[in-house]
Amino acid sequence: MSHIETLTKYVGHFVDALWRSGVEQVVISPGSRSTPLALLMTEHPHMKHWVNLDERSAAFYALGLAKESQKPVALVCTSGTAAANYMPAVVEAFYSRIPLILLTADRPHELRDVGAPQAINQIQMYGGFVKWFHEMMLPEANPAALRYVQQQAVRAMQQAQEGNPGPVHLNFPFREPLTPDFTVENIWSSGESAAKPPLYGTARLDENEIQRLVEILETGKKGLIVVGPQEDAELAHAVVRLAEKWQLPVLADPLSQLRSGTHTKDVIIETYDTILKSASVRAKLQPDFIIRFGAMPVSKPYLFLMKEYAGSDHIVVEKHAGYREPVGMNTQFVYSDPVKLCEALSESVPVKMETWLLEWQQMNRIARQVLTDDTGNMELTEGIAVQDILRNTPDESNVFVGNSMPIRDLDSFFFTTDKHIQPWCNRGTNGIDGVVSTASGVAASGKRTTLVIGDLSFYHDMNGLMAGRNYGLDLTIVVINNNGGGIFSFLPQAQEAAHFETLFGTPTNLDFEHAAGLYQLPYTLAADRAAFADALQESYNKKGMHIIEVRTEREDNVNWHREKWQEAEKELLHYLENSHA
Q1: Distance (Å, rounded) from C-alpha 453 to C-alpha 422?
Q2: Spatial CB neighbours of 357, under 8 Å, sequence gap ≥ 6
Q3: From what superkingdom does this record's organism come (predicted)?
Q4: pLDDT beyond 80 at 202
Q5: 222-270 pLDDT, tens digit each
Q6: What phi-psi label fits residue 450: left (phi over 0), alpha (psi between -120 and 50 degrees) or beta?
Q7: What does the alpha-carbon distance between residue 417 and residue 423 come to, in Å, rounded to a whole number?
Q8: CATH architecture of the region 378-557
Q9: Under 8 Å between Cβ of 394 and 542
Q10: Cα-flanking dihedrals φ and ψ of residue 378, to 5°?
């Protein structure tokens, strides 16, 4: 059998086994050494392929695809620094528990460490940021080799999804020539000969363990259910039913999937970040216990509450074994399917304290009234821009937000709604890179997507516009341009006047209309709320990508937010002092 025939069958069997294991999409960055993988992925009859020229953008694009589909997505690149450019997205995927399958082409062993061009050490190059690494054998086409390559495809899928999902890395050494021959017979494996994917069950507590948990919770009446960032669409109904039975408030993170949808929302406290900003308010809200589902919430005031009441019973529910508890509290971890746990706990109803829930509900109404009290104001602040996006975005759509200020404004101004709005953000490492590309990957699902992003984060990933434009994705990009790092104006660094602008403010002084022009995308500069609403509606009524810029002043933004928080604190304390009198 010739080298080309061997190469074709070896890689073909791998690609087919990967698809049979459940991989439906691959993002390919062009290169020479990866030719066998790229061509056979493209020629596979069932594999959907995307081409992204920039490996850094490609990896974040795949991250978005995997986020939205909740299925592993493959990545293919050539050897050398191409693979190194995957690193930022690999780190994000690892910490946000998103399954990616990294397929890097490499020089054969005789061309490593000898000064050959485009050759770097790719063995375990992602270190501890992948769940599994495997160096593939050089292609052979005997039955044992074909079984081996199929088994590695299945194992890659298994490792990416087992327990807490994450990225895995397979490194493929290839000798030249590299172009497969599609006239070869039996390129793909048959269903009978393919390796078998594993079957997974659901983890749940037994009756004795449920009773032990109930006994812990029965010792206190003032409990909090907290739902942080998580993607399980079924959890909302289960958590709400539990909270209604137990008469407990639910502090719902903006990425919790609880603030929008058809479930009832009377127990959901979406303004808890504003409520807890005041230390004086927190002093009146000591919980007896906290049950948390999902990752740690975005809210920093919630972190303060935990630190101030470290003696409260703290329970963290995870679907699989893991450790996400940054406060250092004495925590009871529960490893069980969250929906099944909620259903089981709903069967046992501890002593209710309805006044505790009523108090939180009234505080939520007060905070929401303060935050929305801009009825006649036509000025376009950053917080108002987020409110107007959520008001105008279509039902059954995605809203992707960047880190720093956009995610915090989403936390403050994403009020409960019956619309189905799926919120997204890269909260694994909270970085500002790769956001345009990740949002584009989310938009590739076909659902209208709105990206809210700061000017620095937009600048970091303007290359991400290429894939969105090439594939005609329905993506509205709202660039909140405060000419720099707006979040730093809220931090103590803002007092360092001598070096603040150079080191933290970091103004770019860029005209983003030119960026839109470079990629031939529609662009609008919105001067006020009316113009902004018109621009949003125009973008939603048309296909493709649109860029809308909103210009704000950093100092004005800080003052506007602080005035809101101070007014909320005043109203909340007035209510609490009277209700506790």
Answers
A1: 16
A2: 247, 248, 249, 267
A3: Bacteria
A4: no
A5: 999 999 999 998 999 999 999 999 999 999 999 999 999 999 999 999 9
A6: beta
A7: 13
A8: 3-Layer(aba) Sandwich (3.40)
A9: no
A10: -95, 0
